[in-house]
Amino acid sequence: MDDSLEKKCLGGEGNDLARYFARAAVTHTPLSVSFELTHRCNFRCVHCYLGDQEAIHKHRHRELDTDTILGLLDEMVEAGTLFLTLTGGDPMLRPDFVKIYEHAVRAGLLVSVLCNGSLITNEIVRSFVRYPPRIVDITLYGATQNTFEAITQKDGSFAACLNSIERLRKANVRLHLKTVVMTLNYKEMPAMRAIAKDMELEFRHDCMLHPVVANSDNAGRTNGGGDILRLRIPPEWAVETDFEVKELARSLAELVKKLDGKKVSEELYQCQAGKISCHIDPYGIMQPCLITPSHSTIRAVDGIKAGWKKLYEAFSASSAVESFSCKLCEDKIICPACPGSFVLETGRPEQAAEYYCQYTALRREKMRSLSRKEVT
Ligand code: SF4
Ligand code: SF4
Fold first, then answer.
1. Is the CB of 88 under 6 A from ligand 1?
2. Amino acid 11: pLDDT
3. Which residues are the signal sequence here (predicted)?
4. Is 333 near ligand 2, meaning CB less than 6 Å away?
5. Which of 147, 165, 166, 145 is nearest to 156 (CA)?
């Protein structure tokens, strides 16, 4: 990896990452790309947004081959991409993972890898040592074998995950842990935090579960949310969980002071998806982000630059919507929802899902009361 480039971009002396983002927005550059190398996974997580793994495995023959992927990585660099996230499914189910990973790093991309942690071979650890990733992100589903495997539905997955974490730590690979909070593991949050603390690893959580995303291996259908959303914790618990993290609580309390009276943007999409970032699925379809479907089928193999141009034009053209239910909401900036998640739940990008409104109202209340306490 070009170390000086990483320093320059990630907070090195005299530099400002925000400048890169601002410049990318002006030049319409796909600065950040997430790439699902496969939807296949060796786990069968109860909350998985990818849907039925048996059906997904049947689509294996449609996945992009190694040479095509390597070519796309080179094209990304040429198009101005700097940040690449390799994800899945579990990307390490592909026997060519190391080849793809090393090619990406050698090409100059700052690569993050998201995985379930159970498939990290010694060859992969050696590769991470040779070509350090920006970060390896592993999901910890619980603090005990019972809870972890009740979620992953895979015997031995807890031990395999902890074993990989230990080997990566010993090898000094940059590593973060995260969890998806749901009814099944909520009570183990303190214990999960303790595991991460003992290992001196950064740990973050996400309480927002999504229904199955529409993609081409489930014929573009979502599951409407029923089964997965039953695992969601109540909004009160989600807010409590957020505020148990002191640094997060502090920064939210700070944020609320800046928000009051601030004019909100009325745009449908407030994020960077389709503006400076995009997503590529295992079959080469380009979309604004993992959960937001594209308005038309855009194939990466027809050229990254051409695909990005089409995506950018289609996406920015769709950004102002009269009937957007969040249009004038002042809480938008502290709300984790986005039109992509609304499509999954309400079927329409402009129609908010109730859970997010409830969560965000409680969040603002808590932020306000914390901020008042600070003042008094
Ligand atoms: S580890 Fe991730 S991709 Fe695999 S089944 Fe679980 S949620 Fe889905
Ligand atoms: S989902 Fe609700 S809280 Fe969030 S931005 Fe929309 S209206 Fe506001």
1. yes
2. 43
3. none
4. no
5. 145
Compute the distance between CA of residue 307 and CA of residue 76 in angstroms, rounded to an integer.
Answer: 11
pTM value is 0.91
CA-nearest residue, atom 6 of ligand 2: 326
Topology adopted by domain 3-229+269-320: TIM Barrel (3.20.20)
Q: Which residues make Cβ contacts (< 8 Å) with residue 108, sequence separation at least 6?
A: 1, 2, 5, 77
Verify whether ligand 1 is closer than 6 Å to residue 138 (CB atom): no
Which residue owns the Cα nearest ligand 2 atom 7?
Answer: 326
Rounded CA Rg of the chain: 21
Is 89's C-beta closer than 6 angstroms to any atom of ligand 1? yes
Q: Where in the chain is the domain with CATH 3.20.20.70?
A: 3-229+269-320
From 284, 283, 282, select the one nearest 38 (Cα to Cα): 282
For 186-198, letters b (16+ CB in 10 Å) and e give: bebbeebbebbee
**24-47 pLDDT per residue, tens:** 888 889 999 999 999 999 999 999
User: Could you tell me the pLDDT band of residue 228, with boundaries at 50, 70 and 90?
Assistant: very high
